[in-house]
TrEMBL record:
Keyword Cell cycle: no
Chain ranges of the DUF3048 domain: 81-208, 248-359
Listed transmembrane segments: 25-46
Transmembrane recorded as keyword: yes
Organism: Candidatus Kerfeldbacteria bacterium RIFOXYB2_FULL_38_14
InterPro entries (alphabetical): DUF3048_C (IPR035328), DUF3048_N (IPR021416), YerB-like_sf (IPR023158)
Keyword vocabulary terms for this entry: Membrane, Transmembrane, Transmembrane helix
Annotated SUPFAM superfamilies: YerB-like
Name this protein carries in UniProt: DUF3048 domain-containing protein
Length: 371
């Protein structure tokens, strides 16, 4: 058939529609439906692309079985692949001191999560959270409790190990329904003191001693009941790093924290007080997959002792570092036992890189540097 015949037919069809209102209406409706469907498809595609912190297709389904034959799953606390049955081990939180003269500490590298915040006199303190089955022969030095660390520990609904604490902390931790209190003062059999180190900086525990505590208190069969964060299966390191160095000024030079990005291994090397921060068990510099800086309202609780109080419930400013990138945003904690969540400026929950995370908690009148 010639091109002229096709053109004549098309002209006749279009001309017939001129006086056929039903046909015109049908075409208009069909075009409208097609347009709406096209818009929906485009929006879905854009949504799957996400905001640069891990799209829907990249977010790890922690409850999914990777491969039944390989018997592998994802660990809830840090998104790391583990043997099935070990994804959601009951969490143990241990208070560890950071007095400059006691470094290096033992067992910090093996922690899945570490909180660092000021205690008294500009000295910071750690709360290390363990939710794996790794053997850790020494953890410490173990130190005393503070109320805001207890507030964070309640998010994990596990064990909180410490030696004594401030009056406010001891009053708070007594009888909490979602937190098992393990205080060396009264439960000394799960700790030991190193005679070669001066007290009170010589108290230690271990994964073996903590496991004995779980057995003795019929907790060895329990699993975690906390809400896990999101983790991304795609760690894009192709972009030029914009956060190769992070400087966090807690107080004096002895407690200044610095992280330097190692692109080859896609992690951050931690320094404390101007020197590489080592773990005594390995004599290696501590490495971190995710660094979170959380700014919280902080005030003086007791003038004589210098004890602080921190408002860790509500929301505030935060910066998240991973894959050599920095994401400005905010943190939010809506209830005492709710997990603190982190969001970007578009209010999208941030997806983390599988691996350990250090949460650096600063007073909200401080600033950090990164470049």
């Amino acid at each position: 058939m010639s091109n002229q015949s096709w053109q004549l037919r098309l002209r006749n069809v279009l001309w017939s529609l001129k006086d056929n209102k039903k046909a015109r209406l049908g075409i208009m409706i069909g075009a409208g439906v097609l347009g709406v469907a096209l818009i929906i498809v485009i929006l879905l595609l854009l949504n799957r692309r996400g905001s640069g912190n891990g799209s829907d297709s990249e977010i790890i389904n922690l409850n999914a079985e990777i491969n039944e034959e390989e018997n592998i799953g994802y660990r809830f606390i840090d998104g790391v692949k583990v043997e099935q049955g070990k994804e959601n081990i009951y969490p143990l939180a241990v208070m560890i001191e950071n007095y400059a003269e006691v470094r290096p500490q033992s067992g910090l590298q093996k922690a899945n999560l570490v909180y660092e915040a000021l205690a008294e006199g500009g000295i910071t303190r750690f709360m290390a959270i363990y939710a794996s089955d790794e053997n850790i022969p020494e953890i410490g030095p173990v130190r005393s409790a503070r109320p805001y660390f207890i507030d964070w520990a309640q998010e994990y609904k596990g064990v909180y190990a410490h030696v004594g604490g401030s009056p406010e902390a001891l009053s708070l931790v007594a009888g909490l329904p979602d937190l098992v209190n393990l205080d060396q003062m009264g439960q000394a059999q799960y700790f030991w003191r190193d005679a070669n180190i001066a007290a009170p900086h010589n108290l230690f525990t271990s994964s073996e001693f903590l496991t004995l505590f779980l057995r003795d208190y019929a907790l060895q069969e329990k699993f975690g009941t906390y809400s896990p964060w999101q983790f991304s299966s795609t760690n894009d390191t192709s972009q030029s790093p914009v956060a190769q160095k992070i400087i966090i000024p807690f107080s004096s030079a002895s407690y200044a924290v610095e992280y330097n990005y190692d692109r080859q291994n896609n992690n951050y090397l931690r320094s404390n007080g101007g020197a590489p921060h080592l773990d005594k068990l390995t004599n290696q510099q501590i490495t971190v997959a995710n660094v979170i800086v959380q700014f919280v309202p902080t005030s003086l609780l007791d003038y004589e002792t210098g004890r602080l109080q921190m408002a860790v419930q509500g929301e505030g400013r935060a910066v998240v570092f991973h894959n050599g990138q920095a994401t400005e945003g905010k943190w939010r904690k809506t209830a005492t036992t709710d997990r603190t969540l982190f969001f970007n400026t578009e209010n999208t929950e941030i997806s983390f890189t599988p691996g350990n995370t250090w949460i650096e908690v600063l007073p909200d009148d401080r600033n950090i540097e990164y470049n």
